[in-house]
Amino acid sequence: MTARTSPSHDDDRLSPAPPHDDRLPPARFAYDRRTWKEIAHLLVNLPVGIVGFVYAVFVLSVGIGLTVTVIGLPVLAVGLLGARFLGRCERARARRLLGLHVDEPSPMPDHGGQGFLGRVWWSLKDPVGWRTMLYAFVRLPWGVLSFAVTTVGLVVLWPVLPFVARGLTHVDRALVRGLLSPSDELERRIAELESDRGVVVDTAAADLRRIERDLHDGAQARLVALAMGLGLAKEKLLEDPDAAAEMVDEAHGEVKLALQELRDLARGIHPAVLTDRGLNAALSSVASRCTVPVKVTADLPARPAAAIEGIAYFTVSELLQNISKHSGARSASVEVWRSDERLLIQVWDDGRGGARLDGGTGMAGLADRLGAVDGLFVIDSPEGGPTRITAELPWRDREPSRPGR
To answer: Which of these three, 269, 304, 320, is where a domain ends?
Structure first.
């Protein structure tokens, strides 16, 4: 270890003083790569501002001027979609020349099912397009000013131009952040919910069609056959009592089958055990019908909201059906627990694996259902197994039952 000591005063006296130099060190200016990019951005502001301003004026004047006709609003809607493209180009320019990274706004929701007028209406309400139009109007005067200052700076203010360019581009960054970035997380969330609402509507329509089909092909067909059988038995009651008794006995069997089908259908809509006894008992019930031995573990301090409870039940029910039909497993398990404000479900089996969202086993539908309520659906299923599927739902407390209900 080397000790470090301070020099003595004698050493100071013996050491010759360095010669005094009146010359200042050479000035170093910040003309680095970043500065040249900022200067290039400022010089391009003018042509970009002209293009954007002309586009905005043309779209608004033509669109608003033609609102007295049937083509005015569609023209304005298309113009707002074009403004989204201009905004995307400006965000790319800011990323490349200013090093400014902002999130892309949410894409326009798909409202194809609402027809042409529905798409026009949603385009006219697009806040991203309108903010880009405002950006185009503001950009022109600022583009003229920043272009003029930068051009003059290149000629007579070049020693301080890097600092001037830095200050001017700070204004550009503020404009891009304020007008071309997503206004806030609410806008993105609204777009997601709009898309998720379509998924929920489609799922509900599919469920209604399934219930209608099951009623028509199952219980309804049996009840029709039952009515015809009882009618024939009534006609034979006096002529051939034995044959009539046999027909009544067959009708009794049909009644039992129809009742069982109705119970199964009601269980598919919302099982009574889930309403009466909660998720633990309902999952144990559905696990008992699986062709593979299933261990159910539920650690829930309380019952979640009925809607969340129902989604969790049907998610596990469909996953266990897939295990019975496709997995070739010898054992499986279901775990349900609460973590903070989330309800977590994990379904495991030791089958052949290879489960995918696009595998045609209903996994994509489950993922869409969970995504519609801000949930997650994760598949870990390598070829050869095992398969572990994790579902996550938001925890919502169950509303207390009202007196007298």
So the answer is: 269
